[in-house]
Amino acid sequence: MKSKFSALITIIIILTGISTLTAWEKEGRLKIQIALLLDTSSSMDGLIDQARSQLWKIINELAVTHKSGRTPALEVALFEYGKSSIPEGEGYLRMVTSFINDLDKISAELYSLTTNGGDEYCGMVIESAVKNLKWDGNNDNLKLIFIAGNEPFDQGTVNYKTSVRLAKTKGIIVNTIFCGDRITGIKTYWKDGADLAWGNYISIDHNMQVLHIEAPQDAEITQLGIELNNTYLAYGTAGKDKKARQKIQDSNAVKKSKAVAADRSISKASEHYKNTDWDLVDAAASGKVDLEKIGQNELPSEIQDMSVKERENYIIKMAKKREIIKARINKLNEERKVYIREKQKENQSCSTLDTAIIKSVREQAKKKNFQFKE
Length: 374
Fold this sequence. Notes:
6-stranded mixed beta sheet; alpha/beta
């Protein structure tokens, strides 16, 4: 029986192009780790809105990253700081998520963030991220902190120089994003913070309305993203809730703009969008579940009454369908990128959160010998 299950895993891996976790571990899995430290004090509504609307664009940039022919795993962590509703004894900061690859959860958490006044302790939140996140020990991998805010960088009892230098000892690059004019950010030590750990200092207009270039391919890409959801088979006690969350994040993207909705669908067609903890197709490909052992009540309703063989065939069918949809999305995306590049030439580029992050990631990834498929 076990050999049949192994055969199922092999078939799905071939269909989806997924490596098993064991294979990743054997070859030393490439990683990109990004910790986002966002100021959620009362003046930062614009920053949070930019993060929500530009998350998928940033993910899509990372999706074309590779090294020696291998695609790195992506892990994202999220902190908020500067919020007065968080106790002063906790530094007005909170780890929203540790490093995870669940992109729907990151999106959901961004939409749950609220702002209110407080003191912004940059040194303390950097220290918390360095000490409390599980950073990879391999310095050939890309480990980045992006901290964004608009108050002096030297506030609080933890010296930012100490925190940034601690990050540097772990091979972590600290990038600072000042929400305001460049000179003010320099005078309030944001540039100094970046300079201490190989990072970039960038100033942005966090209140700028983001320009979303809508392309002719957007409608079909978004529709395909919806169809992609039908290939997900929710299992386990939390499966239904997480599949519902997938749909909610689709809706959140649509409300932002047609371009954001398309960006999200493109992200869902990338290698970074994996849901092994609730989707049977991804879980089977990674070897996380055994269809012969999983309880009937843990399975999605559409396959509960099937035999093990029928379930295997159904999962393979969904995997095939998913790859056909992904292939179409990716083909349309190639056409879309050409269109957007041409339109960008007609519009003056603006300094927003996505441009700050993408610029830094590209520069710093190349120094680690990562490459980008154009």
